Amino acid sequence: MVQNKQKSAKLPRAGKNTVKEPAAPKEENWQKVKIKGHVISDDFGNYEGLIGLEVLKDYDAALVKSSQKRVRSKYPARNSESDSEDEVGATAKSSKKARLAERHAQKMQKLREKREKRKEQRKQKKTKGKAEEKDAEDSDDSNDEYAADRFALLRPPPSDDEAAEEPDQAESSDEEDEAPDLVPISTVNGEDVSAWNGLGVPSPILRALGEQGFKGPTQIQALTLPAAIHGKKDILGAAETGSGKTLAFGIPMLAGIMELKQRNVSSGIRKAPKVKGQQPAEVADDEHELTPPPEELDHVSGASDEESDMEENAQRKQLPLYGLVLTPTRELAVQVKNHLVTAAKYTGIRVAAIFGGLAVAKQERVLRQCPEIVVATPGRLWELYSQGNHHLKKIEDVSFLVIDETDRMVEKGHFEELRSLLKVLNADEQKKQQRQNFVYSATLTLVHDLPDHMQKRNTGKRPKFVKQTVDQKIESLIEELGISQPKIVDITSTQQTAQTLTESRLLCPLEQKDFHLYYFIQRHPGRTIVFCNSIDCVKRLATLFGLLDCNPLPLHANMIQKQRLKNLERFRDSPTGLLIATDVAARGLDIPNVEHVIHYQVPRTSENYVHRSGRTARANKHGITVMFMEPGEVKSYVKLYKTLERTEDLPLFPISERFMGAVRERVNLARDLDKEELKLKRVQSERGWMKKHAEEMDMIIDGYNDESGSDQDEDPFVIERRRNRLHVETVRAQLNALLAQPIFPRGFSFKYPNSEAANQVSTSHTQSAVETMKAAIEDQKQAKKDRNKRKRNA
Ligand SMILES: Nc1ncnc2c1ncn2[C@@H]1O[C@H](COP(=O)(O)OP(=O)(O)OP(=O)(O)O)[C@@H](O)[C@H]1O
C-alpha cells in the first residue's frame, strides 16, 4: 500500500543492526500497495492509515515523516510558552469544572460538524469514483500471493479539502478527540524539539522531555515509540547500556495511560480478540463524558483542599492501577520511578516505587494514594499483593507491564516471586491479550556457549547439547512472559558494550591489585565505580581505601537500605566519588558522568561485564573500563571474551612503575593500620565480654572490673591494649604524613614503558584515563605494525 516505486525498494527488517536510517520520501502521491510481512490493524491510533505503516515489522519511517509534515500543517506548531500563559489566564477567569464542560461541549460540536462533512464528502465520492475503486480492489484481490491480513491501507491523514476515507474508519472518528494531544510542538523553552514529532509523543510529555534538554529521541526510542504508541505492540528491545531504554518504555506507557484516561477506561489498552457471541470486557464509550485531560487533574494534593480525607480515600480506592514496572534492584526501582515522574510532570499521572528494605507500613501508605504506575521489585510487590493490599490487587488488570533487565529477572533461581506474579497477571486470557508488554535489556540477545560439562558430554557425531540461538532465547522469553506478537528491536552491536566505551585490562598478581587500584584512583581522579564479586571484598576494600583517605562508599546487599540509598546520593554528588559495590549496582543505575569502571575481579558472567561496564560511557559520553586480572582469573576472562565474540584481546592499561614504590608504601601502611585496628577492636570487645560476664556473676577478676585499680599496670590485657593503641597511633601518623604528599606532583609529565610496545608512551598529569588508554592503544597498534614490518624484511 505504498507507491509502486517504494514497493520495489526493500524495507528494512528489525533485527541485529539491521534497522537503517530512513531514506527521504520520494513522492507525496499515496495509493494502495501490497506489503509483505505481518500487519497489525490500528485500534486506537490517531494517524489513521498511518498506523498500519508504523506497526509493520518492516515499516518505512520515511513515509511516516512525509505524513508528519501534513499533520503539522493541519495543526500548526504552537508556542508552548504563550499557550501556558493563556492557560494560566483562563484558570484565573473560570472555575475548573466550567472550563472543562465548555471545552468538552466545543469538542463534541466540532466532532459532529466533522462527521456531517465527511458523510457529505463520502456520498459525493461514492457516486464519482465507484467504478475506479472497484477496479483497483479487484486487481488486488485477484493476486493470491498476498493474504488479506498482509495488507494495510496507508495514506496521509486527511486535510480538510481532501477526499474522504473508508466508512468504518470514518465511523470510528471518536478517536479524533485525542488528536490535540498529538499536536506536534516544535519548541520547548526556545529549544527545537521537532525531532520527536511523528512518533506519537503527546505534547504534555514532550514538554517535560524538552525541559530536560532531550531534543530528540535516541535510536532505540525512535525505533520503538511508533509501534508502541500507535500500534500498541508489545516491545522486546535490546540496546546498549545508557541508550535511553527507560524512556523507550516510559513514554508509551504514559501516553497510553493518558489515552485510557481520556477514553475513561480503567484498563485494556488493546482491544481483546473478538470471541463469537461475547462482548469485549470494556469498550470505549463514544458518547461518554470525557475525563479532564490529566494535566488538569489535581491528583496528589490539590483536590484534598476541597474534599474531606475520607471522601478522597474512597475516590482513590476506585482509581485504577494502569502500569506495573518490575526491576531487579531497589535502587533501580527508585531511579526508574524518578525518570517516570519527571517525564509525567505535565500529565498528572502519579508514580510510586515499592521495594524491600523499607518499612512495609510506609509503603502501604504510599499505595493508599493509588498511584497509576507502580515501579517495584518482585519480592516486596508479591509480599504486599499476597497480604491483600487493595491497590496492588489491581495488578490483575494492569494495561502496561514492563519487565526491565528482563534477562536477569527470568534467570533460574532468581526472583521466584516474578513467576508467581506472572501467574496472576496471565491468569485471565482476555486481560493478558489487552495488556501491552515491554521487555528491555542491554543483554537480552546475548547467548552463552555451553558450559564445560555439557561440551565434554558432546561426543560423537550427534551433539547431545546445542547452544541456544538468539531466536530461541527470544521465543522462550515470549512464552514465559505471555507476550503476543511483539515488535523485536535489537540494536546491540556485536561487541555488546557502548560504542563510546574504551575497554582495557590490567594483569597483576592477586596481592598487587590493591596497589594498582590505589595508583589508578590517584593518577586519574574522577567519579569511579569499583566492582567486586563478593560482599567481603567490598567491605575489605572500603576499609582499606577509607584508611587511605579516598572516602569510599560501599554498596552491597547486606547494608541497610537507607544507607544504600544515602551512599548512592553521596556518590552522585561528588565529582571524584568512589563507589565500591557488588553487582547489586551493575544493572541500570544511571549516575551521570561516571568516568571509570574498575572490575576489581573478573566478572562471573559476560552479562555482568556488559552491565558493570555500562555504568560509564552512557548517553554518548566517553568512559573507560579496566578489568583487573590475576593469573587465576585468565580462564574466566577467556570464557567472557568468547561469549562476547571478541576477536582481539583487551588492550593493557599502562602503569608507570616509577610511582609504584610510593603507592606500595602507602597501601602497605594502610594494611598494617587495618590489622592493628582490628587487633585493638578484638581486645576491646573481648574485655567488654569478660567484664559483662564478671558483673553478671558478681565476681571480681583482676583487671576486668576496674581499670583504676592499683595493680592495673600488671594486667596483661591492659598492657596489650595500651601497646596496640600506641602502635596504631604511630602507624596512623606515618600514613598521614605520607598521604599529605601527592604521589603525582602537579605539572609532571613522563614516559612509561608499554609492555606490548617497544617504544614508550608519554603522558602528563592532566591526561585522563581515557586519553591515556587511547594513546596506549595507538602505540600498541604502531608497535604491532613495526613488528610485522620487521618480520617481513627479515
Ligand atoms: N532522548 C534522549 N535524549 C537525551 N538523553 C536521553 C534521552 N533519553 C534518555 N536520555 C538519558 O540517557 C541516560 C541513559 O538512559 P537510561 O538510563 O534509560 O539508559 P538504559 O538504556 O536504560 O541503560 P541501562 O541498560 O544501563 O539500564 C539517562 O540519563 C537519560 O536521562
UniProtKB/TrEMBL annotation:
Where does the Helicase ATP-binding domain start and stop, copy by copy?
Answer: 226-462
Composition bias type Acidic residues, residue spans: 134-146, 159-180
The EC number of this protein is 3.6.4.13
Recorded hits in Gene3D superfamilies, A to Z, give: P-loop containing nucleotide triphosphate hydrolases (3.40.50.300)
Q: Which UniProt keywords apply?
A: ATP-binding, Helicase, Hydrolase, Nucleotide-binding, Nucleus, Phosphoprotein, RNA-binding
GO MF assignments: ATP binding; hydrolase activity; RNA binding; RNA helicase activity
Which family does the record claim for this protein? Belongs to the DEAD box helicase family. DDX24/MAK5 subfamily.
How is this protein named in the record? ATP-dependent RNA helicase
Gene name of the encoded protein: LOC108076711
